[in-house]
Amino acid sequence: MALGEPAAGDERPAESADAAASGVVGKRGERALVVIPTFNERENLPVIVGRLHVALPGSHVLVVDDSSPDGTGEVADGLAAEDADGRIHVLHRTEKDGLGKAYLAGFAWGLDREYATIIEMDADGSHAPEQLHRLLDAVNAGADLVIGSRYVPGGRLVNWPRHRELLSRGANTYARLALGARVHDITAGFRAYRREVLDKIELDTVESAGYCFQIDLAWRAVRAGFDVREVPITFTEREIGESKMSGGVMTEAFLMVARWGLQSRLERFGRRSR
Ligand SMILES: Nc1nc2c(ncn2[C@@H]2O[C@H](COP(=O)(O)OP(=O)(O)O[C@H]3O[C@H](CO)[C@@H](O)[C@H](O)[C@@H]3O)[C@@H](O)[C@H]2O)c(=O)[nH]1
């Protein structure tokens, strides 16, 4: 396990010192932490980490594994031990506790260290590390939260089953109507957060455990007045393993979004009648 302080070789590169101080990352991904939640991804993980370190050799990875029965956690430990540059870290959690909880643990780990930008990415190859520079370019151009979006012009879906696409588009339409947020892919899990966003949006009050965590955080960022932008990406259906989407995940999202929408309407009403 490679927990603890960033290892030797993790010093801030001279050319990126200004960038890190101003919250942006270097061209090779210096000062970026890519958080990858995993549950049963033993075959996918080495591939995605390898691709990531070709695309952004200066970035660090934090694998957040929920004691995957297939041994993904041990695979992650092996990758960390093999990486002479100390760029791979692993957080082991005791049980499967949902995507949102895994990200919260990963963000807390990253915020305790000096990463300028914290990235979310799936382990299964759906998100292409080769497209991460699109997100980082937008951060470096001034955005606070950048969402790799399937549903803006230029965004693409490859091999995603029709029922998943319909579910995803339906969830986005529902969230947009309920919350009034002008984000086309608010459920997307390919994102880059400037660390100030995560510092400010009160992560300790986040209740969403599953995939509605994505909606929750984007909505918090919008409400806090951050500059939230979308850049087009290609989302490719996984070839190995299975999605962890479930009825419980969908029900939680439906109910949570309804609650946030209602709360926000009541707040607006309260402000108007004062
Ligand atoms: N640690 C941990 N990881 C988890 C858990 N549940 C899922 N993951 C990990 O989270 C990533 C995404 O899970 P998938 O189950 O592969 O997601 P998907 O069905 O392809 O869902 C896609 O669409 C969602 C809805 O738009 C997105 O929210 C999600 O990020 C992704 O893009 C994978 O790396 C998976 O191993 C969990 O409980 N714990």
Automatic annotation (TrEMBL):
It catalyses: a di-trans,poly-cis-dolichyl phosphate + GDP-alpha-D-mannose = a di-trans,poly-cis-dolichyl beta-D-mannosyl phosphate + GDP. It comes from the Bacteria. Residues 1-22 are annotated as: Disordered. Its EC number is 2.4.1.83. One of its GO terms (biological process) is glycolipid biosynthetic process. Pfam families: Glycos_transf_2. Signal peptide: none annotated. Keywords: Glycosyltransferase, Transferase. Residues 34-201 form the Glycosyltransferase 2-like domain. Gene3D superfamilies: Spore Coat Polysaccharide Biosynthesis Protein SpsA, Chain A. GO terms for molecular function: dolichyl-phosphate beta-D-mannosyltransferase activity. GO terms for cellular component: membrane. PANTHER family: DOLICHOL-PHOSPHATE MANNOSYLTRANSFERASE SUBUNIT 1. Belongs to the glycosyltransferase 2 family. This is dolichyl-phosphate beta-D-mannosyltransferase.
